Amino acid sequence: MGKNNKQEGAVKQGWFDKFLSGLERACNKLPPPAILFIYLFVIVAILGCIFNLLGVSVINPAKNEPVYAKNLFTSEGLIWLISNMVKNFTGFAPLGLVLTMTLAIGMCEESGLIRALLTDKMRNIPPVILPFVIAFVGTCGNLASDTAMVVIPPIAAILYLAAGKHPVVGMICGYAGAQAGFSANLMIAGTDSLLQGITNTATSPVTGSSCSPPPSCAPWSSAGSATGS
Fold first, then answer.
1. How many other β-carbons are positioned within 10 Å of the β-carbon of residue 116?
2. Which of 42, 102, 215, 216 satisfies CB 3.0 to 4.6 Å to 192 for a cystine?
3. Distance between CA 197 and CA 189 in Å, rounded?
4. HSE-CB of 202 using CA atoms within 13 angstroms
5. What is the pLDDT of residues 78-134, one digit of tens each?
C-alpha cells in the first residue's frame, strides 16, 4: 500500500524536464570561471601553436600586411605574451567602463540605494497598470547592468503582494522584463558606451581615427526594441 502511494506521489518527468535536469547536472560539474578561463587560454595557445606551424596568416587591412599566429610555447612567444599583457588590457576600450560601472553599481546595490529608490517610486502605482510598469522598469533595467536581474524580481514580488496579487507572478513579471528587455533601453546606458568602444576598436583599422561614432548611436535601435517589448 505504501509503495503504491509513493508511486502515485511520484511525478513523471517529461522530456523537457529530463533535459533540464541533465543540463543542470552537467553544469554543476563545470569548474569555477577562473579555471574555465585558464582552460580557454590553453586551448587558444594550442591552436596558435598549430596555426603557427602551418603558417596560417591574415591580412591586416590597416597596414595591408600579413599577421601570423603566435606560438606561445616558444621563448619568443612567451616574451611577446608577457610584454604585451598589460597593453592588451589597457588598449581594450570597454575595460575602463566595465570596471567603473562594476564599482559604482556594486556600491549602489550594497548600500541599498537601488532597492530603496525603486521601492519608493513604485509604491503608489495603481494595481491595474502594475504589470506594465514592472515590465517597463525591467526593460530599462540595464541602466543598472546585470544588477537588474537580481533587484527587480524581488521588488516586483513585494509590490504585487502589497497590491493583493500573487508575489510569484510579480517575480516572474519582473524577471521576464529584465531578461527580455535587457540592453533595450530608452536612455543611454553603460551598455551603449561599452558597445561604442567595441565598435570603435573593431572599425578603426578600416575607417581610421576620423570616424568615431558616439554612444548615442546605439539607443536608436534600443529605443525601438524597448517600446516594442
1. 11
2. 215
3. 13
4. 8
5. 888 888 888 877 777 666 666 776 677 678 767 877 677 767 776 777 888 888 888
Burial label for 143, CB within 10 Å (0-12, 13-18, 19+), is middle
In the chain, where the domains are located: 33-91, 93-229
* Cα–chain center distance at 167: 26
Element (H, E) at 60: strand 57-60
Helices and strands (DSSP H and E) totals, the chain? 12, 2
Are the C-beta atoms of residues 158 and 169 closer than 8 Å to each other? Answer: no
* Verdict on whether the full-model pTM lies above 0.70: no
Whole-Å CA distances, 23 to 12, 26, 120 = 18, 5, 39
| Phi, psi at 84, each rounded to 5° | -105, 5
Residues in contact with 60: Cβ distance below 8 Å, sequence separation at least 6, in sequence order: 66, 67, 205
In DSSP terms, which residues pair with 187 in a beta bridge? Answer: none
Angle at 118 between CA 121 and CA 104, to 5 degrees: 130
- CA distances to 69, 118, 128, 214 from 165, rounded to whole Å, are 60, 19, 11, 43
Question: Nine-digit cell at 179?
Answer: 531578461
Contact 192, 101 (CB under 8 A): no
